[in-house]
Amino acid sequence: LRTRQRAPEVKRAKGLHGGVGRAVDGQRQREGKRVRVVWPLDRCLNSPWLMSSTVSEGTAKRDLEDSKKKNTFSENQPCLKRNHNSVAAQEHDDNDEHLVGLAAKRTKTLGGMGQESNAENSSSPGRNGAPGEGEEGEVRHLHPEATRTLDVALGLPLSGARYKCTELVRVMEQALYSLGYPEVAQKLEKSSGVNLHSERVQRLQEGCLSGQWEQVIALIDGERDHLFGAVEEDHDGGEEATTEERVQKAKFLVLEQKYLERLSSGDVGTALACLREEITPLGINTGRLHELASLMRCRSWQDLVESRAFGDQPSSSSDPVSEAAAALVANGSSAREKPRDAKGAVSPQVSRQQLLRKLQEVIPSSVMLPENRLESLLGQAVAHQVSHCMYYNKTDTTFSLLSDYACGPEQIPSVTSQILDGHSDEVWHVQFSSSGRMLASASADGTCIIWERAPGGEANGSSGGSRSPSSRKFRIRHELAGHKKPIAFVCWSPNEEYLLTCGNDHVLNAWCVETGKVHHRYEKHLDSVTSCAWLPDSKRFVSGSIDKHIYMWHLDGRLVRHWKGSRINDLAISRNGKWMVSTSNEKKFHLFNLAMDTETVVYEQESIISLCLSKHSDLLLVNLQNQKIHLWDLNEFFESCGSPEALPIEPIRRYRGQHEKQGRYVIRSCFGGSTETFVVSGSEDSQVYIWHQQKGELLKVLSGHSGTVNAVTWNPTDPYTFASASDDHSIRIWGTQETV
Asked: Which of 36, 37, 38, 34 is closest to 76 using CA atoms?
């Protein structure tokens, strides 16, 4: 909309409203006037030229307001008001029509652009209905509010960020197809002139899903420049893959699927010919080639599945941000495109869909749109919002797309909802069962109490119907008296059928939760038993003692394994049962590989008094004697089966805020929240501290106890409830203001 120098000759172009505009004539040009064109406000804001340009709406409005205030049409002459000067007004009208004509000539609608591009560039790589790798298309700026939010959140200058309109249309078309609106998607393709995929990609997809492997290979060879011509960097930031490398990888994937299907149908001869004459000459992925050869004994699809011919099924992520993204994507089309057979195994048709996903890794995204792209983008947006919420503690994985996710400190349980005073002495340990329905407490009075949450209709004497779990009170189910001295530790079996108790009388007891009776008594240790932990099968467990021995027991009383080392303060077993972590009074903790019978030592700054593994066993909390808490990341070490290169050398997070002094008692901490967003710990100053797990910021300090808070435990199924045990002989149940 700025000042423009016009050519002396008269130009004509069809205007946006069907009229014919005329440029400034030669006479005006010879007079040396530079005309500033001012469009009417309504016409300017509704112009496709403005809407498709990189000029923001706010900038256009400001320019118009400035021009109205100045009320001038010539920068070289005195101000001439439009209603008092017909010449200036005519100049404005002429140039207005001329710019309208130029706008119509310079910019096209998406429909015109797509149709004309298809006609002119049908032979170029990546074309034939869908935009190719080299096409720019119409480009727009991100909305100012969106870029301003990203600038603040990420600290990046994104005010100039842009996107291609054709890509947005393709993403919308894919979403419409996946949501079950093919007619609407087809109408969008027709009206915009932008197809979701080119005719070549459609033939590739149809051939893979129908099992026409010869046609697919011929298409890959014949259209390699169109399907694989775009060179992109690998996802890991490695070297660029050439077109030939992409072609070879794609052919290997297709022929691998052909080989497996021929093998499962019993056609061993054809399968063997495919392996020898088609796959082997490619000369790539030798390791996988040997694996395919070893599958020759399989004679059915079930045999292939049991032989893991298609690999292991992906496991869920422990990252709360990734879980938020996955939850949103699961509500999209991906959740409806994974049918299984009666036994839950992958069916042949689903394996062909997986083949298309693998091909997407070698075909540029500009040619073949990644699966569920819109859901993926939405999931990333939600995950980004969740990652910036300090108090995220959501149980419902449904997120609104109409507004940004936000939460406040009310999500953290910080109000005492119940005080359990069944013990007559200090309470040293407390732990929820895996279902969160029961709570076990160990006391210096030599007893253990199993508390059970009241059913829905018996909530705190309420006259109404059932209430939320957080609002229901705990009551005594069993009072277990089987130790002669204080009980130091309790541990629930994963199936909740048994409860272990151990203490200063050198004995472990396994209690039947149903009857409240001792199932078995284990007497082997020569000193106080400080800790115990179950293996996932609920039949074996380990115990550690001050006598420097660790024993692995079977539920029936048999001694399975034995380790001897230093005085054991605490120990834990990983979720998969492959690793054991133990600590002593020394400044280190030990990592035992139970499968390979190896031991690795990790050193700390201070003596460790207790530890806690996360739900997915990838993070480890250690409480130091100086009342500091450190967080260690063990995921890479466990995934590498104990590789020395993956051994962590320092904690990834340090939590402070307590009075840092030499501790006299054993203080235990734990993870908390719906996705273990928080770290909660007791202290010797009678308070409960809650930090944000990833950021390390102190969020809450809760008062209420009158003695040292020895242990805390977060309900694994109700993120709005946790319990704390104290020397004041009580257990406090904490909830949110709403539930209380």
From this structure: 34
Structure tokens, 320: 């709360």
pLDDT digits (tens, 9 = 90+) for 647-679: 999 999 999 877 666 567 899 999 999 989 999
Q: What is the pLDDT of residue 134?
A: 42
Count of C-beta atoms within a 10 Å radius of residue 37: 18
CA-derived radius of gyration, the chain: 35
Residue 511 bridge partners (DSSP):
499, 518
Rounded to whole angstroms, the Cα distance separating 543 from 522 reads: 10
Helices (H), strands (E): how many in the chain? 20, 32
Nearby residues of 90 by Cβ (< 8 Å), 6 or more positions away: none
Amino acid making up residue 218 = A
Residue whose entry in the numeric block shows the structure tokens 């309420």: 462
- As a whole number of angstroms, the distance between CA 566 and CA 513 comes to 33
Share of the chain above pLDDT 90, in %: 47
At residue 447, the 3 state secondary structure works out as coil
Other Cβ atoms within 10 Å of 231 Cβ, number: 13
The C-alpha atoms of residue 702 and residue 365 are separated, in whole angstroms, by 51
pLDDT, tens digit, for every residue of 215-233? 999 999 998 888 887 554 4
Q: Crossing angle of helices 110-120/165-178, nearest 10°?
A: 100
What would the two tokens of residue 367 be?
A: 């040619």
Other beta carbons within 10 angstroms of residue 203's beta carbon come to: 16
- Close Cβ partners of 269 (under 8 Å, ≥ 6 residues apart): none
Beta-carbon contacts of residue 573 (< 8 Å; ≥ 6 apart): 533, 534, 535, 536, 542, 579, 580, 581, 613
Does the pLDDT of residue 606 top 80, yes or no?
A: yes
- 162's CB contacts (< 8 A; 6+ apart) are 54, 139, 140, 141, 142
DSSP-assigned beta bridge partners for residue 543: 532, 551
Our measurement of the distance from residue 409's CA atom to the centroid of its chain's CA atoms, rounded to an integer in Å, reads 23
Tokens representing residue 162 in the block: 């842009």
CA dist 170 and 194 (Å) reads: 7
13 DSSP β-pair partners: 21
Half-sphere CA count of 177, side-chain side, radius 13 A:
18
pLDDT in tens, 267-308: 888 989 999 999 999 999 888 888 888 888 776 777 777 766
- What is the secondary structure of 109-139 as a DSSP string? -HHHHHHHHHHHSTTSTT-SSS--TT----E
Looking at residue 276, the DSSP 8-state letter turns out to be I
pTM of the model: 0.68
* Structural contact between residues 99 and 181, judged by C-beta atoms closer than 8 angstroms: no
DSSP character at residue 35: B
